[in-house]
Write a structure and sequence with these properties.
Length: 366
Amino acid sequence: MSATPASTPESSPSTDPIRSAPGRIMSGEMAEQPAVLRRILDEGAPRIREIAEQVAARNPRFVLLTARGTSDNAALYAKYLLEILLGKPCGLTSMSTTTAYQARPDLTDCLVITVSQSGGSPDLVASTKAAREAGALTLAVTNNSASALAEVSEFHIDVLAGPEEALPATKTYTAELLALYLFVEGMRGGSGAEKAKVLPDLAESVLARQSEVKALAGRYRFAERMVLTSRGYGYPTAKEAALKLMETSYIPALSYSGADLLHGPLAMVDNISPVIAVVTEGKGGEALQPVLDRLRDRGADLVVIGSKAAVERASAGFALPTEGVPEELQPILEIIPLQMLAYEVTIARGQDPDAPRALAKVTETR
C-alpha cells in the first residue's frame, strides 16, 4: 500500500491481456497465503526463534513499533502480543519527531521494531537508523532481505512472502502477522509453530468460500460509507480491512475500537449504516458484545466476521473456523474474508483492485 503517484511503466499493471484482467493479481496473491504461511512455519520459524532468543537475552525495557499503512496495522497487532503475552510496555512511533523535528530521545535498552513490506521507505530507514544511534536495539521485519531497512537494522526477519505485485498488500500482511507472532513466542521461550501449524489449512478453507463473500459484497456495492469495529486482537483487523476497502473500492471506511465507537462516533450509525464487526473468539469478542447490542438497538446493517456462535447471533456474517485456534492467532484468519470482500466489492463497482488510482507499491514518505 502506498500513497505515491504512479508515474512509471513499472508501477502499472501488466499490459498482458490475461494478467491485466481486473483483480487478477490481487486474487492470485490472496490465494498464495496458505503457501506463504507454510513457508514461514517450515523455513522461517527456526531463524525467527533464534533472533527472538538473542533479543530476549538483551532484556529490553520498552518496545517501540514503527510502520506505515498495512504494516502499521501489523505493528498494532504486535503491540497487543507484546503487551499481553510479554508484559512489555509498547508504543507506536511518530516518525516525524525524528525525521522532521530531529528529536533524539534516549532509547537505551529499548527495542525498536520496524515493519515494512519493501523496507525501502526513506522515513522508515532514517528513523530506524536514528533509533540505533540513540541506543536502541533494532529489528526490521520485511519482505526484502536486501532492503535499506534490513541493512541499517541490527536484526532482520524476512517474512518470506515472495514478490508482491498487487498494490493492495494481502499476503505480506498475513506473513507479517505470523512472523511477529513467532517472534513474540520466541521471546517468551516457546516456538509458537506448534499452535500455528493449523493456519495454512484453515486459510485454504476460508479462501474456498469465495461465493459466500461475493454474496455478502452485494450489500456494499452502493455504500457511501462503512464502519468497521472490533476490540482486542481483532482491532488491527478492522483497521486493515478499512484500509483495503478504501484503497480498492474508494468507499470511505472508518475503523474504530468498539470502546471508541461508543465515545461519540456511534451517533452517525443509523438503520442504513453498514457496520462490519470483527468478533474474535475470546476476551476481545466478549468485550465487544455491549457494542454489538448498541448497534442492534440503532438498527445498524450489521455483519459479523468471527466465530460460528458470533455469526449466529448476528443478522448476517461470515463464520470463521476458530475452534481450537488461540485468540492471538485468529487475526491471521479474520483478515482473509475481508480481503476477499474488498476485492469483490471493487469488482462489483466496476473498478480494478489491481490498479487503485494514484498509488504505487513503494511509499516515498520522508
